[in-house]
Structure formats: structure tokens, C-alpha cells
Amino acid sequence: MAPRRPKGAGAFPKPVESPAPQTPDPSELYAALDLGTNSCRMLIAQPKGSQFHVVDSFSKSVQLGSGLEQSGRLSRSSMARTIQAMRICQQKLKRHRVTRMRLVATEACRRATNGAGFIQQVRRETGLKLEIIEPEEEARLAVISCAPLVSTRTDQLLVVDIGGGSTELVWIDLTSVPHRERPRAIMRLHAGFHPAESPFPAAKVVDWISVPLGVATLRDQFRDVEDDSARFALMSWFFEESLAEFAPYKDEQAREGFQIVGTSGTVTTVAASHLGLKRYDRTKVDGLRMTSDQIDKVIRGYLELGQEGRRRDPRIGQDRQALIMSGSAILQALLRCWPTDRLSVADRGLREGLLYAQMSADGVLEDGPF
Hints:
The protein has helices at 68-71, 76-96, 107-111, 115-126, 135-145, 182-187, 215-221, 228-241, 265-275, 282-285, 292-312, 318-321, 324-337, 350-362, and strands at 30-35, 39-48, 51-61, 100-105, 131-132, 156-162, 167-173, 204-211, 258-263, 289-290, 343-346. By secondary structure, the protein is an alpha/beta fold.
């Protein structure tokens, strides 16, 4: 006699894994693209509480500013590389059906004599409408991207964004803001460094500066210096001289209550080296606190490695090794001026600032703690 078929046989088994995430509603999506001197980066995200959830991303080293220091123009090869990257971004935006977006270009397009023409070429060939933003807006967007990393105990805040073609510094006084409100007060700067009267306690922007020296442009200025250590020292002192007009430059800053937030590939690479990571891990790097002494130890290690040693070091990576010493020279100059026990590493920047600004303006972020 054949065995009887068990009751329920043939039914679908209960899933043991979580179901695949639902495709986000395109009407909830925002996009931000940052075309810098060295890289093209894009994020597509949807609001989630007081933060956002990344749906898709893109990052490519396009070296748009290659040769700009010598010629004053964007080269044909760098523009071709960049347009290829922009086509990939366009495909991602189309696939996700994103309608809310801001696509911006920074220092390389600001400085190049053919920058405006290149923006028009991008639109003809990809359909994407890039806008060249001014240094103040670039600095402001970098600041608000770092709001979640601001300590409630911070009285004086210096936000540093080391880019490929420029470096933005913003000094903010938070002493008049209640401790718990300090990160939120930074976020409110999306309306401008000197917003209109508000019922909320305001963060005071003491001063800001955009130095036309980034990791690529500073490296190119001293490319002819052959000695590794001499080139590094010259880059660091040259950058410090460019800070002479920055208001807090001459002030001695107490370490207590003072925080630097650094956002750049340089800062995240130094953090990865400090942690001894063989493979980069954003969850371990973003928000990490480092002291001036720890950063100085990493930079001294880079110098001891020499060019060939840095090229082989997995913590630095092939994309970053050519730029790490110019970035480190900038970082060392800043820490010589303002030593701190609290430099917060931010693996975030202009893209995140663009997203926060769009979402805050639309009122889709919850007004809760970060």
C-alpha cells in the first residue's frame, strides 16, 4: 500500500530569510551629485526619520582637474573620463526614476576657463544639468553633512573639508546654544551662514575661508621637488601661510570644548591607517575620534614608508597614494595651528550635505535626535 501523502505537502515552506526590500517609491527619492577636481560621486537616498537611507551610490576618480594648474583649462581626456562617469550616473537616475536632485560642480569648473563650456557639454551629451556652486555654499553643505558628528559638549567647532582643488574651513561658536540642541543648530545652517531671525538658538559662524589648495592642486604646485620629506614640509608650510586671513588663526584655542570635524579622503585614509585596516570599513571610520598625536604618528609613518612603500600599503590604496602626502600636509598644518584631542573623522561630505539641505527644505526629515 502506497504511503499517504502528508497533510500540507506541496505547500510553500515558510521563509527563513527576511523578504527582499521593497522597491522605494520614486516620489520619495532624492539624488545628490558632487563633481570635484578629482572625483565624481553620487548618492540616491530616501528620508528615514532624522536621517536618510542610501538606495544607490556611485564614486569614480575622474581627475577632472588634471593639468589645470599648468594650463588653466580642463583637458580633453579629463573631460572625456568625466562624461563617461556622468553617463553612468544618468543611467542610475533614470533607473530609479528620480525627479528631486541637485547636481553640482566645484573648484575645477570654477577655475577653468572652459568650465562653463564643459557644463554645457555635459548637458548635451548626458541630459544632466550641473550647476557650478560658489565656495560659501560648498563650505555650508560640508558643515551640515557633519551635524550628526558634533558633540553636545562642543563649544567651538572647526569643520574642515579637504577637497581635490580647494579646502574649506568654517569656525562655529556654539556657546549660546543649549548642549542638546548643538547638532540640530548645525543642521539649521542649511538656510545660510547668517540666517534670518529664528525662534531656535543659533550657531554663530565666526569665520569661514575657501583656500584654493586641495590635495591635487597642492601636489601639482610642488611636483618639481624631488625629495619626499622636503616636498612634504614645503606643502605644509605653504598651506599654513594661506590661512593668515582666517579670523581664528592667531587665537590660542583651549583643547577643552574644542572639536575639529574633518571630512575628506585624506582624513578617512589616515583613520584607516591608524586602525590598521587592511580593507576599508566605513562603519569603523565614520565618527572615529583621533588626537593630534595619533594623526601625527600616522603621517610620520607615511614619510618613513617613502613613495614606493606608500604605493604598496593596502591601507592607503592605489587611488589615494598619489594624493595622500599633499592631504597629510594640509592636515598637519591645521593641527599645528589648532591642536586637539577631538578630531572627528567624517566619511561624508558634499553629497550628504546636498541631500540634507533638500530634505530639510522639503520638511521630510523628522525633528528628532540624530
